From TrEMBL, chain A:
Domain Transcription regulator PadR N-terminal, first and last residues per copy: 19-89
Pfam families: PadR
Protein name: PadR family transcriptional regulator
Organism listed in the record: Jeotgalibacillus proteolyticus
PANTHER family, per the entry: PADR-FAMILY TRANSCRIPTIONAL REGULATOR, TRANSCRIPTIONAL REGULATOR RV3488
TM helices/strands, residue ranges: none
TrEMBL record, chain B:
Pfam families recorded: HAAS
Highest taxon in the source lineage: Bacteria
Keyword annotations: Membrane, Transmembrane, Transmembrane helix
This protein's name: Uncharacterized protein
Length: 115, 333
């Protein structure tokens, strides 16, 4: 039972990860800073998922990357591309719509139960 | 080498060469970000444990599909397998029975002959199943990879389906469409000629003495070419099956296949030592010397010409069918 619940939860969250990551990339971020930002907002993402995800987003041309070598250790920074920004806005709208719909559904369910 | 470098190496050695260096650098700097300056080994181990098994991490970086045949082609794959294996089995059974009958000399007890034939058949059947399975899987594997490379988001090409597509389907004229029966027939034909080729010395023989007409060594010397041709034929059939109707491109590929078939057939049949030396006396007994050569030549060339005629007709048919316009049956009626 709890195994099933874990896998369902993972599935539920997987789709939202891209949106969560995109939301933090309007300013350039490197891998670890992104982890921290997400964690501060309570979004737990496995690092082994995040880093490959960033590269996939880059391949899909949603973000661009650049190496910063001015600091003591070189870091790879990712930032939203113009295209990525557009996609992000639309995705955000979709999410807001979905979560509203779902909220209404779930609330309706609760009311049914109490009646 | 410290633990971090070892870890990074364990990840990147599983990745394609061109991305290796960049990922290594990024991973290395990220892991150091996670750690304070001069971290203890315990702490490093703790952070590496968070990143998890390097093999798993590497697999997340790789973006080619981690399956042999994806959902888009799986149904086709199963259908083709289900269709091909019975055909192959029937052909094996038929050839083995013919071999057993023609090879029966009466020297061994009939029971033993039957047992031997049964064992042979089981062996060949197993062989053919393994072969069929392997080659069809290989063809689909190749299709899967070439599609995945051209469009990586296409996990399900059917997702762009519209109800309007139905009209196109129903308005593909019968003559342009490739029926499943015709694909089935072609597969059967492939299985038959392949079966005859690999068992020629048993099947084509002077019946009462069992002297093969053809020289097995010469005939089978070309088996790699024949196997390649079979693979091409099966691949073409699968393509036909998936496509469901004739197109110019398919017709063109069909021409190439026909040319290859005719070329290989002509090449093999015109080998001077193809005829079994022991069989020639038989012929000369029936006919005189010059007639023998003439007859053999006549058989060779008439079969080549017949094949060419059929191939040319088949090639033209392909283009003719491809040309048939897809008219909309609903609006025209």
């Amino acid at each position: 039972m709890s195994d099933l619940l874990t896998s369902l939860t993972t599935e539920l969250r997987r789709g939202t990860l891209t949106l969560a990551v995109l939301s933090q990339l309007s300013t350039p971020q490197y891998g670890y800073s992104l982890v921290q930002r997400l964690e501060n907002s309570g979004v737990v993402i496995e690092q082994s998922t995040l880093y490959p995800l960033l590269r996939r987003l880059e391949k899909q041309k949603l973000v661009t990357s650049s190496w910063d070598t001015t600091e003591s250790r070189p870091r790879k920074y990712y930032v939203l591309s113009t295209y990525g920004n557009e996609v992000y806005k639309q995705l955000k709208k979709e999410w807001e719509k979905t979560s509203l719909e779902l909220q209404q559904l779930l609330r309706g369910e609760e009311e049914n139960e109490s009646n | 080498m410290n633990l971090i470098e070892l870890y990074v190496h364990e990840v990147t050695r599983r990745l394609p060469e061109k991305t290796r260096e960049d990922i290594a650098l990024e991973l290395y700097s990220t892991i150091q970000d996670m750690l304070p300056d001069n971290p203890s080994e315990e702490l490093i181990k703790e952070e590496l444990a968070k990143l998890g098994n390097p093999a798993q991490l590497a697999s997340k970086y790789r973006d080619h599909p981690r399956h042999l045949i994806g959902p888009a082609f799986y149904d086709h794959y199963l259908t083709i397998l289900k269709m091909t294996i019975p055909i192959a089995l029937v052909v094996v059974l038929a050839t083995q029975v013919m071999v057993a009958i023609s090879g029966y000399t009466g020297e061994t007890p009939i029971i033993q002959s039957i047992v031997d034939a049964g064992l042979n058949t089981a062996g060949s059947a197993f062989n053919i199943i393994v072969h069929t399975f392997f080659w069809i899987t290989l063809v689909f594997f190749t299709i899967e990879r070439s599609f995945a490379a051209s469009d990586q988001n296409m996990s399900f090409p059917d997702s762009s389906w519209k109800p309007d597509d139905l009209k196109k389907l129903s308005s593909v004229p019968k003559k342009k469409a490739i029926s499943k029966a015709s694909v089935f027939g072609s597969l059967l034909w492939t299985a038959i000629w392949a079966g005859i080729y690999f068992n020629a010395t048993h099947i084509i023989a002077v019946f009462n003495d069992g002297i093969p007409v053809l020289n097995q060594d010469v005939l089978l010397a070309f088996w790699p070419l024949v196997v390649i041709l079979i693979a091409i034929e099966v691949a073409l059939l699968i393509y036909k099956w998936v496509l469901g109707q004739w197109t110019n491109r398919l017709a063109f590929m069909n021409v190439i296949y026909n040319i290859l078939f005719v070329a290989l057939f002509t090449f093999i049949i015109t080998r001077p030592d193809l005829l079994n030396q022991e069989f020639i006396p038989y012929l000369t007994e029936l006919l005189n010397q010059s007639q023998t050569t003439n007859t053999v030549n006549w058989i060779i060339w008439s079969s080549i010409i017949t094949l060419i005629i059929f191939s040319v007709i088949d090639s033209f048919e392909g283009f003719r069918k491809a040309k048939i316009r897809v008219s909309n049956l609903f609006t025209s009626s």
